[in-house]
Amino acid sequence: MHQTKKGNQWFFGMKAHIGVDSRTKVIHAVAATAANVHDAACLPDLLHGEETKVWVIRPIRAKVRSSRPARPPRRT
Q1: What pLDDT score does 75 carry?
Q2: Residue 64: its pLDDT value, please?
Q3: Residues of the chain above pLDDT 70, percent
Q4: With a cut of 70, which residues of the chain have pLDDT below it?
Q5: Residue 50: CA atoms inside 13 Å, Cβ hemisphere, count?
Q6: How far, in Å, CA of 38 to CA of 25, rounded?
Q7: Contact yes or no for 34/2 (Cβ under 8 A)
Q8: Dihedral over Cα of 16, 54, 52, 20: its sign
């Protein structure tokens, strides 16, 4: 098992990811990951290719950081 830190709080253990058919409510895929694995990493394992919609409990957002320093404000 691994640990991950969010803010000032540590989380230990595993996460379960479940793929469910929204129409029939049948579970078609299950994946378990360590706590430090990003939720989007197992998304391909949960999809079977015939989905028309995908829902997540919380949004998976990629944080993009620029390595360039911010430009100074433009003078007019």
Answers
A1: 66
A2: 46
A3: 72
A4: 1, 58-76
A5: 5
A6: 25
A7: yes
A8: positive
Q: How far apart are CA 41 and CA 27, in angstroms?
A: 19
Q: In this predicted structure, what is the pLDDT of residue 30? A: 92
Q: Name the residue with tokens 């049948």.
A: 26
Q: Give the position of tokens 């360590």.
A: 34
pTM, full prediction: 0.57
Take residue 64 and report the two structure tokens written for it.
Answer: 């993009």
Taking the C-alpha atoms of residue 4 and residue 21, their distance in angstroms, rounded to an integer, is 30
Name the residue among 54, 8, 57, 4 with its Cα closest to residue 34: 4
DSSP 41: G
Which tokens hold the place of 55?
Answer: 């829902």
Q: How many residues does the chain have?
A: 76
Give 12-37 as a 3 state SS string: EEEEEEEEECCCCCCEEEEEEEECCC
Phi, psi of 41 (to 5 degrees): -65, -30
